[in-house]
Amino acid sequence: MRLSAVIPTKNRADELQVAAASILAQQRRPDELLVIDQSASENGRRRLEALIAEHGAGIGLRYVYDPSIRGLVHAKQVAAGMALGDIVCFLEDDEILEPGYFAEIERGFHDRPEMMGCCGLVTNLPPQPPGYVALFHLFHRGMFRDPRVGVHGHVQGNGLPLIPSDYLSGGLSCWRREVLKRIPFDVDNGFHLLEDVDYSTRAVRAFGHRFFINPNARLEHRLSPVNREVLGPRQQRKLREYLVFYKKRRESPWAAAQLAWLLVGLLLEALAQCASARRLAPLLGYVTGLREGMAWTLRGDAN
Predict the structure, then answer these.
(1) Cα(23)–Cα(96) distance, rounded to whole angstroms?
(2) Which residues, 6+ apart, have CB-to-CB distance to 226 below 8 Å?
(3) Distances (CA, A) of 286 to 142, 190, 235
(4) Are the CB atoms for 300 and 183 separated by under 8 Å?
(5) Which residues of 31-41 are buried (b: 16+ CB within 10 A; e: fewer)?
(6) pLDDT tens digit string along 12-55?
(7) What pairs with residue 220 in β-bridges?
(8) On the CB side of 3, how many CA atoms lie within 13 Å of its CA?
(9) pTM of the model
(10) Tens-place pLDDT, residues 164-176
C-alpha cells in the first residue's frame, strides 16, 4: 500500500527539518511527503528541499507554501484533497519518529483490513500528578470518554495488540483515503485542541468502531514553544471547543449531564492550575471560554 506523510507547519523551520530527518531515517519510508506551510517566509521550504535532495531518494516531496491557509484544520483539509496514498498519515512538525514508525503503521493496516484509521503512540509525555489519569476518566464520561489518557506515555513494549479507540490523536493519526474522501474536516467552528476528537468521532459515526491506537508505532513529541498558548488562553480555547463539540452532539442520550459533569472536572483542573502557577489566568480562561462556548452558533455542514 502507498503511504502519504502529511505535515502542516507554521514558522517552525528548525523543528520541521528535524522531523523530516526522522522520516528519512525510517525503515519503511513513506511514498510521498506532503507539507502544508503557512509560515511568514519560505525558509522551511528551502531547507527541506535541500534535505530531500541529499537524503530523500524514493520520496516524492510536494510542498505547498500558502500563508493564506487559516490554521491547522484548514491545512489538513487542503492536504486531504491532495494526498495520493492509500493510507494518509498526519504528523506534527515537532515530532521525532522512531525508525519503525511507518513499518508498524503499514503492518497494522495489513493485519487488520477492517481498520479504517489509527494513531500511533507518544512516548515522552511530561510527568503527570499522582491520580491525574483516574480523575481524568472520572470526569470525561460518555461522549467525552478518552481512552488515550493512560496509554500515551504509559504503554511500552513491542508486538502489542491494537487498542480500540474512538478518539485518535490528530498529530499522529493515519486514515484510509476513503475516510478523508467521505468525512471533511470542520474548518468553520474554530477547532484546534479538539479538532482530532471532533474528526475521529464523526468518522466513527460513519464507519463504525473500526479505529485503534497502534502502540507499536511510536514517536516523541518535542513540544515547540512556537505557536503554543499559555495557561489562560489554553483553558479559554479548551472550554470553548468542548462546548462547541457538545453542541454538535447535543441530541445524544444524556449529553447535557455528561457536559455538566465534564465542566465540574475542568473547573477543578483550572483551580489546580491557579494554585500551581499562583495566578488567576487559568480560572479567567475557564470563565471566558465557557461564556464564548455558550454563545457560539454552529457554522458550516461538517457535523
Answers:
(1) 8
(2) 11, 12, 15
(3) 22, 17, 5
(4) no
(5) bbbbbbbbbee
(6) 999 999 999 999 999 999 999 999 999 999 999 999 999 999 98
(7) 96
(8) 24
(9) 0.94
(10) 999 999 999 999 9
Cell numbers of 228, please? 503554543
Q: Which three cell numbers stand for residue 44?
A: 522551511
Give, in order, the Cα–Cα distances in Å from 99 to each of 7, 69, 131: 17, 31, 33
3 state SS for the chain: CCEEEEEEECCCHHHHHHHHHHHHCCCCCCCEEEEEECCCCCHHHHHHHHHHHHHCCCCEEEEEECCCCCHHHHHHHHHHCCCCCCEEEECCCCEEECCCHHHHHHHHHHHCCCCCEEEEEECCCCCCCCCHHHHHHHHCCHHHCCCCCCCCCCCCCCCCCCEECCCCCHHHEEEEHHHHHHCCCCCCCCCCCCHHHHHHHHHHHHHCCCEEEEEEEEEEECCCCCCCCCHHHHHHHHHHHHHHHHHCCCCCCCHHHHHHHHHHHHHHHHHHHHHHHCCCHHHHHHHHHHHHHHHCCCCCCCC
Q: Are 238 and 294 in contact (CB under 8 A)?
A: no
